[in-house]
Each structure stands twice: as structure tokens, then as C-alpha cells.
Amino acid sequence: MNQATSDPTSLTSSPYRRLGVLILLLILHAGLVHDLIRKETPTLDEVAHLPAGQSYLDQASFAMYRHSPPGARLLAAIASSPNRLNLDNDGGWRTDQPANHWRFAFETVARYSDPSLGPVRYLSAFTWGRHATLIWSVAAMLVLYLWGSEWAGPSVGLVASALWALCPNIIAHASLVTTDLAATSAGVISLYLFQRWRDHRTWTSLAAASLALGVAQWVKHSSLWLYFIVAVWLFIASLSSVRQSLTLWVGGLWIAIGSILVLNAGYLFEGTGSPLGSFPFLSQTLTRPLSAGEVNPDVASTNNLTYRDIYARRVNRFRGTSLDSIPVPLPYHYLAGFDEQKFEAEGKYPMYMRGRFAEPIAPPKKSSSAEIPPPRRGWWIYYPYALAIKVPIATWVLVAIGLVGGVLTRYRKLAIAWLALGLVPIATMTLLTDINLGLRYVLGSLPFFFLIAGLAATLLPRPFHWVFITLAFASNGFSLARIHPHELSYFSEIVGGPAHGRWHLIDSNIDWGQDLRSLARWLDAHPEWAREISIAYAGTVPLEFEGIRNAQLPPRDLRYIPDRFLFPWEKREDADTWGPKPGKYAISVNFERVMRFHTPISSDLIDRYGASLHGSLLPGSIMAQMPKGSLAYFQEFQPIIEPAVGYSILLFDLSIDDVNRVRAKMGLPPWAK
User: Taking a C-beta distance cutoff of 8 angstroms, is the pair 502, 560 a contact?
Assistant: First the structure.
């Protein structure tokens, strides 16, 4: 499929010029990501990822956070070694098997609240660890250049790698200790190396393809889609070369076997060969209802059933069958984690798009049925919509030119191949899961759209093709300059930019807890706000870790708060204790958009109210329960969107007149104090 050509008039005609441009792009990308690494507070998932990665080094076991494979977390923990986390491995690790990664994360946060260890050291560990993800990003950028150059010419490779380098979404996730960017990079690298083996079929290329495919599985369960692509690719190749089809399929089988060996080695072969019937499966796919008189040995009690506990009335569907004792050639925690991911995809998460929530089903607490309630469905349009509004407009213009022009010219096979590769992650998440949580789940599509966009460099009329490409990148660069260092909240101008993003998507698309550090710096420069501000922050890092002390919680709307989650000072019968009040507020977008979540409370409140707070907190943490709608009344006020703070935290300066207008709508007496 190699159709590379040489263009003597091209900007990339000189290999030295190509190398120079590529190096400049790499430096620019690394610089932007590094700057972002220093300026962001650890996001919601990061606070669980990095301690789990450190636990692998401490314990030589991969039970912690097995919801996804350990590769990215382990490498981040190694990168954080200059300032590694000092964990209490006798806490959640030993007493809560299977290891609860959130409990472990909260224990780690509490441990670093101790001044002898210090919040600065805690935050520094994330700064170091995040650089492992930057390495993943740089590797993928180089592969895009090589792939585009080999298939369609150096201009295509340079454009594709430049789009990667300057994409706000790539920059945002390249700065985080999470699995999304690592999985995207591992996916594109493994497919590139597979097609290299297909073209050259040497032992070296076969070993490289096996290694890369295994590493991709070691990073994230969603990388399973790569096996489907490899099989389809082999099938198509064997049709065009029937004489060599046996060689292709045998080689492909060796690559698959090699990748499984790499995956097992990545887990140190922990639990490899465990009997299929020994797994305490949870998901509907891998369980069946208990028969009469049968007891699930994996669950201690079936009293007071919750949504998760309803699975106590189900059991591993292979237990007691002829497959019970079959050894599984996979690491124990890999397969158990895959099942847990399937379980969570069956209805756990609240999902939001354009002002609407698709809430998970909450079954009756004492249901006697073993049947799992049907999950709520998300929106099939969610991921295409997220890509449309969170990828720069100029990028989509280049993609359209590359796709249409490619299909109509000799690049047809390239354009169709890259389009198919780009659509598979979208189709996988849309058709096989019920998770509409963020663009990050389909980051794996972007590299192939960038390669399609690169075709525009060969298809646009000469000699003006580089002028058009330059204008497109100038547009992207302008958007990037406006958003930096808040790339996670990027939305394109098609929806009005990041200031209007919350009307369309929330959660990790805009508010993942990343802007607390920016808020702290802004408050330092605005002491009139710092003296009286109340904060509801949708994150997990304590406010004091970023230097914000004695902040109060905003008054909540008690109509949405169950009695068990009330704070000691909240009295339904006393309207002065709840509802809108005059003052200055910083409210996370997730709360303003009605999302149920939790928020860290200050040590000042803990010291003042002590044990009386515990019913309103997540167990074992300083995170206050914030039910859906707790702060929805802030939608009635006009927020102050301060770019220096970021777009995930809204500021409000409420007057008595503003407050009383909304209190009247809520049926509350006016505020007169």
C-alpha cells in the first residue's frame, strides 16, 4: 500500500529540512506538555493511578486498580522515582481484597496530609510521573511521521505529526498519569509495526509487532480491538496474495501468541493459568443467576443489596461446568479487571450531553431478583459529537480534503484504510459499551484522522498547498495559544469555544479537577476573594495541598440532599442554613451542571465538627457527598469565567438582590442578614 512520492518543490524535499521541522515540532510539543504538567492539579483519576503504580513496585502484585492493565501506571511510578510516593501498604492493600484503588488513593492523600511528609512531595510525585505519558506521546508522534512518509510521502507524515503535536486534546492527556494517551500511542505503534511485518515479513519485524501488540494489551483493555484489526488486515492481505495466505496467517498467529506472552510477562505471570471457574466475576456477560439453594461463595452477605450487590445473586457462569477447571492463559488480574470493566459499563455512570443526563438504574435495595436491570443507554451520537466540537475546525477541514481527495485519486486505498482504522475505536465504544464519559475514550481515532488530513498536503493545488496548510496550522495555533494551559477544557469555535463548552459536555471533557492550582494562584492575586470565598471543587486533591485554607462550602439546596448526607449545620426547618446566600463562590462546572459527585472539605471544617461530619463524607476520606442537584441553583446566576483560573471552575459574586430573586423561585424567605 506504499504510495510515497517525491515532490521536488515541497517544503519537505530536503531530508535535512524534514528532520529540522520534525525536531522543532517535537520540541514544541514536549515544551507545551511539560508546561502543562507543572501547572495542573492531579486530576480525578490520577490520584488513584499513581499510588496503584507505586504499589506494583512495592508489592510485586497487580491487584490494585485492576480495572485496567498496569502498564501506564507502572511506568509513571518508575518515572516518579526521584520523588516517589511513600505508601502505607498495610492499609487498603491488605484489608480490602480485591484491592480497592479509591480507598487506597484516599489513604495516600490522608498520609500526605501529615506535615512530616508534606503535600508538596505528594504533588511533586505526579509532576515526575506525568513525564512517562509525555514519552508515550513523543513516540506516537514519531510513528505518525514514519507511517505517513512510508505510505504517502514525507509531507503527509509531517502534517500528521504536526497535527498531533498541536492538538489540544493530545496535549491535555499527554500531561496526565492516566491510561488514555498511553493506550492511543501503544495502539498506533502496534498497528504501524504490524503493517511493517506484513510488508517485510522478517523475524525482526515479527518480534517487534508481537512486542508492541502485547504492550498495548498491557496498557488498556480497550486495546483488544487491535486483534480484530489485525485479523481483518490479514484476511484482506491473504485475498490479494492467495499463494502467501498461509504464511501470513501463521505469522499473524505467532504475533498473537507472542503478544500474549508479553502481556503475561508484564504481569510477572501473576495468576497465569488460574482455572476459569475460580474468578469472582461480576458482569452480566460472565455470570448467571444462582440456582435454587445455591450460594455465591465470593460474596459474604446478600442483605441490604445495592446496585453492585445485586450481583451477589449471580455467580461465575463457568463454575460447575465442563469449563470450570480450564486454565486461563492470561494473568489473573487482567481477566478479573476486564470483568470489572464490563460490570461498570452495564449501568454505573451518569452521562451528560447538551443539558441532559442519562442516569444509571438504581435497583431496589432489597431486590430478591437475580436478574440484572437493563442498563440505561447513552447516545450513539455522543463520540462523533464530542470529536466534532473538541477537535479544532481547521483539522477537520484538512481531514475532509484528505478524505474526499484521497478517495477520488490514487490514494483511495490509503484514505479508506486510515478511515476504517479511525472509525473502529468509535464503533467499539458506541456499540459494545454504555460509557459516554469523554473524548478520551476515543483518542485512538485521532492518529488515523491526522494521517488522512496529511493527504491534503499532496492533494491541494500547487504551489499554494503549503500556504493553505500554513493557514490551517495558524488557526490551530491561535486556538491553542488562547486555551493554554487549560487544554483539557478545549472546545472549538464551532460551539463558541471553551467558555461555552459546559452547555455541551462535562466530566473529563472540561472538568476533571485540573484547575485547582490555577484557582489558588488567582486567589493569591485577588485577596478580596480569598478572604471570603466558598468553594465546591469536583476533584480529590485537598484544597490545602494547593495552598487554599479555611475555605467554606457553598450552601446547598436541601431539596436534593438525603438526610444521611446532611452536614451538621444544615437544617431543613431553618431556611437561613441553606439555599443561595450573598458572597463570593468558586463552583466546579460539574456541580453547576447538576452532576452528582463529591468535593474535598477543608481541615478547618473537620476540626470544627469532627465525628459529626462522617455520615456526610465518603467512607475513609475527606470527600463530602454531593448528590445530584446540590448546587444546581447556580445556573440561575451569571458566572464570571476567568481564563486565568480555567474553564472548569466558575466564579460567582452574588449580591443580595441576585440571591433573593432566586430564593423566591425556590420558595425560600428572602435573605436579610
Answer: no
The H or E element containing residue 649 is: strand 649-654
What is the spatial distance between Cα 232 and Cα 416, in angstroms, rounded to a whole number?
14
Q: Hey, what's the cell of 186?
A: 501503544
Quick one: 529 exposed, middle or buried, by C-beta within 10 A (0-12, 13-18, 19+)?
middle
Among residues 36, 290, 71, 326, the alpha carbon closest in space to that of 179 is found at 71
Q: Give Rg (Cα) of the chain.
A: 26
Cell digits of residue 601: 472539605
Please state the pTM of the whole predicted model.
0.93
Number of H helices, E strands in the chain: 25, 9
- Write out the three cell numbers for 211: 512486542
Give dist(CA 333, CA 218) in Å, integer: 11
Backbone angles phi and psi of 535, in degrees to 5: -130, 135
Mean pLDDT split into 10-residue runs, the chain, 673 residues? 52 76 96 97 96 93 93 97 79 53 88 80 96 98 97 94 97 98 98 94 95 98 94 86 82 96 97 94 86 69 47 82 95 94 74 81 46 65 96 96 94 94 94 87 97 93 83 93 96 95 96 97 96 94 92 94 93 94 97 93 86 86 92 96 97 96 95 80
Determine the Cα–Cα distance for residues 28 and 558; give it in Å rounded to an integer.
49
DSSP assignment, residue 409?
S
Grid cell digits, residue 427: 464503533
> CB neighbours of 318 closer than 8 A, spacing ≥ 6?
276, 277, 286, 324, 326
What kind and span of H or E run contains 287? Answer: strand 287-289
Distances (CA, A) of 70 to 101, 139, 144, 329, 585: 12, 19, 25, 18, 39
Q: Which three cell numbers stand for residue 565?
A: 448526607
Q: Which residue, chain included where needed, has cell 488567582? A: 522
Grid coordinates representing 6? 517525491
Q: Are strands 351-353 and 356-358 parallel, antiparallel or unpaired?
A: antiparallel
